[in-house]
Write a structure and sequence with these properties.
- InterPro entries: Alkaline_phosphatase_core_sf (IPR017850).
- Keywords: Membrane, Transmembrane, Transmembrane helix.
- Helices cover about 65% and strands about 0% of the residues.
- The chain is mostly helical.
- The protein folds into two domains: about 30 residues; about 30 residues.
- The radius of gyration is 23 Å and the shape is elongated.
Length: about 70
């Protein structure tokens, strides 16, 4: 995670700050905040289940239609 912070050549002081940012070792905004993580993971986890339920209902409707036709 956060390997994008270490692409290319950097000075030593940048490496220390990037490692602290990635490891949440200081009071960094956003990605280290529990409220941000809770909101992000709730959104990320709810989207696939809604999509999966919609696909399931569509496939179930198609199967029921095919069974009733034959």
């Amino acid at each position: 995670p956060y390997s994008h912070l270490f692409r290319g050549t950097f000075e030593q002081n940048y490496i220390a700050h990037a490692a602290a940012y990635a490891g949440c070792l200081k009071d960094w905004p956003s990605h280290c905040d529990r409220a941000y993580n809770r909101f992000f993971y709730e959104i990320a986890n709810s989207t696939p289940s809604i999509f999966a339920n919609t696909v399931f209902i569509i496939i179930l409707g198609i199967v029921c239609t095919v069974i009733n036709i034959t």
